[in-house]
Amino acid sequence: MILHEVRARRSADHLPREDQLAWKIAAVAADPVPVGAEVAEMIGNRIIDNAAVAAAALARRPVVSARAQAAAHPFTPGATVFGLSPHRRVSPEWAAWANGVAVRELDFHDTFLAADYSHPGDNIPPVLAVAQHCGLNGDRLLRGLAAAYEIQVDLVKGICLHEHRIDHIAHLGPSAAAGIGAALDLPAEVILQAVQQALHVTTTTRQSRKGEISSWKAYAPAFAGKMAIEAVDRAMRGEGAPAPIYEGEDGVIARMLGGFEAVYQVPLPAPGEPKRAILETWTKEYSAEYQAQALIDLARRMGPAIGNPGRVKSIVIHTSHHTHNVIGTGSGDPQKFDPRASRETLDHSIMYIFAVALEDGGWHHQRSYAPDRAARPSTVALWRKISTVEDPAWTRRYHAADPAEKAFGGRVVVTLDDGREIVDELAVADAHPAGARPFRRPDYIAKFRTLAEGVIEPVEQDRFLATVERLPHLSADDLAGLTFTVPSDRLGTRALHGIFDRLG
User: Fold this and answer.
1) Which fold has domain 290-426?
2) What pTM value is reported for the model?
3) What CA–CA distance (Å, rounded) separates 117 from 136?
4) Residue 497: its pLDDT value, please?
């Protein structure tokens, strides 16, 4: 890996193209390095993972709405949409939109956390949609997804967005554009313009994940994927983009991030170096914010020692700065204690999540968020006894470069009504690669089977999984099989209609 120094520059200080971060990203994407077997296997795992969580979300209102918008844009050859027949194709940017919302709705797929945070699996819908539309094969799809994951992870390692209240899709637009460019085997000059355009139009604020969190939390990554496809299309037609988008005097760093005093260190593969960043990412066993994964496991583990949760006087979670300030009491969000809060808000409340996991001895992607579950008096009482504090040791481990030191859990101190304390800690979730039971291909398949039960017919489940097993060898026609079809009565019901319905 090469560590690149990136900072804002005045317009008078001419910055050669080869020294610009967007060019370096484009060069990495255009580098035709073969995808190794281990990376190919993990890409297959994440395709299964995305399909699993999409199946579970298929009838939820945001997914129904996005699918309806996509269905109003039929196109040939086009791309497939989760739930619909593979013969019913839509324009690729709209397929990426619909599938991106389905994948993101339950906050239940893969994650990478470093200087910033991300869900790299959000790259799969746009890259796959373009691959299907453009008649690419499995090998080209693998190349595109390996590149997208690499760029996403490297940007997340090097540039912190959330400290400036910029949403993490600002790293997703460039990574998806780079991945699409790699899959299409475009020259670096074209990928450069697409990366710059995608960053320019996907740099948004974090209000989508603050306060009253709405369904836009699921739509935001899909928007970035959609914009990436449009950016690549525009660049392929010979059009340019704002440059230098990262370093420019009025660029992203100068005006939206750290300003002219900030210096960022972004690692990128050297020429000829394999793109292996996907192996540094992790999926979720539970449908909750990633920093909650280890704490759910810890709640399960501590439950027997605590006994009756009604005896709890207080629970203090000592954890990282990020966990404390984003999903903990450090956020200052009263909505995180509101039993009437949206699912998206509860998903970002570690106080709620820990209370339910402690009472139930586990977590369920639907039942744990049900309105009557959130309003249960015993839960509300326990929930309001829970607080978080930042512990510098956990913050340091959160940002550690050494994977063996990196941690996303915390130490929990439970005080009972008799004054007795029960203390335990857990660094990483059980499903993490360094955890008690790391996820392997059988675990991804089990997650898919569980979430697809009652949604996707067993024979269709088998067909989809068999297609993924042949991923490196899929033909262009076979790529249409990387989706699933369900009976129409399992697609949910549209309550409202929009502009596209009226024009369609």
Assistant:
1) 60s Ribosomal Protein L30; Chain: A; (3.30.1330)
2) 0.92
3) 30
4) 87
